[in-house]
Amino acid sequence: MTSTPRSTAPALRQAMTAAAFAFIASLILWTNQQHVSRFFMLSPLLVHTLLETITITIFVSVFIVCWNAFGGHRSRSSVVLAVTFLSAAILGFVHAISFQGMPEFTGPSDMHKSFSAWIACRAIIAMTLLGLSLNPKDPNLSQKQSDIFLGVGLALTAIICSVIFFFPHAIPLMYSTESGQTNFKIGCEIILIVINIASAALFLRDGVKGTDQQVEDRLEIARIPLFLASWLMGISEVYFSLYAERSDVNVAIGHFLQLAAAVAIYRSMVAINIHKPYTRLATQTIEIARAAGELAAQRERLHRMIDTAIDGIITVDEHQSILMINPAAAAIFGYDADFLPGKSLTLLIPERHRSGHGTHLKKFGETGSTRRKMGSHYEDFYITGRRSDGEEFPMEASIAHQLENGARIYTVIFRDITDRKIAKEKMAQYHEELSQLSAALQSIREEERKHIARELHDDLGQLLAALRMDLTLVQRDPELGNKSQSAIQSMDQLILTAITTLRRIATDLRPRALDEGGLFFALQTLQREFSQRHRIDCELIADEDRLTLDDARSTAIYRIVQESLTNVARHAEASTVTIEFEHFPDKIIFSICDNGKGIDEEDMKKSRSFGLVGMRERVKAMHGQFHVSGNAGEGTCLHVELPFSRQTA
Question: CA dist 566 to 511, 515, 526, 562, Å?
Fold first, then answer.
């Protein structure tokens, strides 16, 4: 079961109540015609003319609204309704002026003309409402198509009027003086009753479903009043089929019902579309007032935010005249907030920057960019401001612009970064000092390792070698027994192991190959020992002739390769390692890559990754670049780039 929308339910109840009342009252009158026929109108012509004039006026109003309500946005239904009710008004006028008793129309044949116009008028309205109740497709029509519809409608109306006036006998007789209304006329009334009742039923169905046409830029048609209009027109046709004399009260009742139907049509098409723009205007006025209130509240919030912001905010026009400045900005520059509006922005810019500032501002506005940071350096987006006492200070700022009434408006948001800049400079100084300290410590540690390695090799190594020689002499004594010989051999083996361990420790501290054979020979030795010790295939790709460097770079490269191989042995679980050098006139690039399990980004950032930290510091001390890359399961590559002046041997 379809429910009636709440907005149409009251109107539907009122229409059905009025329809029921009209039907019940008419039913009572129809069943008591012997009593009703006793009453006659004293001035039937006056009553008829007055009611017809009001009806004609309403029909003309319907035409005006349906034709002009939405200008060029006309649907086919609105054009058909406009033409229909204009034709109905014309035919109604013909009916009124040809009614018996009107000037120049006193002959008995005049009522035939009047009834002919009457039937034509009611037939046009009934058929149009029936077509509208069937909900046909309703496309838009152009102005030319609308004019064609209007022209055809007026031409047909003119033809009908010409036939009524000049060829009345071509139409079956509607009224005779002796017998009154003819059967043909009554038959026509019955047909109109059926058409109107059918239209009323269809309009009632649409009203219950709530299918009123409510398109923003087209004619709005309320179907519930049309249900009532069709119903009343059907009932009125019954009265018009009952009377015999033009002064019969049935004529008056029929015309009153016809007038009520016309009023219902007026409400369904004219009143609703006349009130619609005013209703929309009132709604829009309320919405505008609400939006204005919200805008005022937003502006108030914005002003409070600007006034309480700790950052400075300045708005200027394209001529660099200050339009707005918040208290924080005024305080940063050392001015009173009420003093700066209207002043030039150059008052806040150091003199050496004033000449070019306007050009930069104009260029920014013409680029099409809406906002950007100010300043030139990618790390330090700051500009210089000037306080009221002439002191200059750094500012971090961003600028945005927009068009207002064709003029560019610029807004700058900034903050004083004097303390930050000082802190950053101190931090950079501390960092430089730490880098120098790290380089010095690396150098001192390398010298100390070189010294310890030399002491171990030259002193302790010599002592162990002498001790072994003495032990060899003792071993040759023939008086020693077998037990003593075994003990001496064991001691000799321990001394040999100690000498081997001593040499390995000394080599780890400072490989003699680096001092005696150079970097290439030291790397070859490191490669060979790494492969033998850890069973990992290690390949060195380098040009011996171009790998002759100064001691500092040679030591740094050797230690980086040594630490990298140590990390591979400890963590990578690799089977191959490649050490490759590339030589350029002003730099050397080398990489150590393995096919191990790789390294995660988090592992490279661990604070306790001292091996990576040490390598990075060595590279930084020589103003080089250090980069580690690797993905899980794809191995790890260490890339180093060192600038240098190539040394010759």
Answer: 16, 22, 11, 6
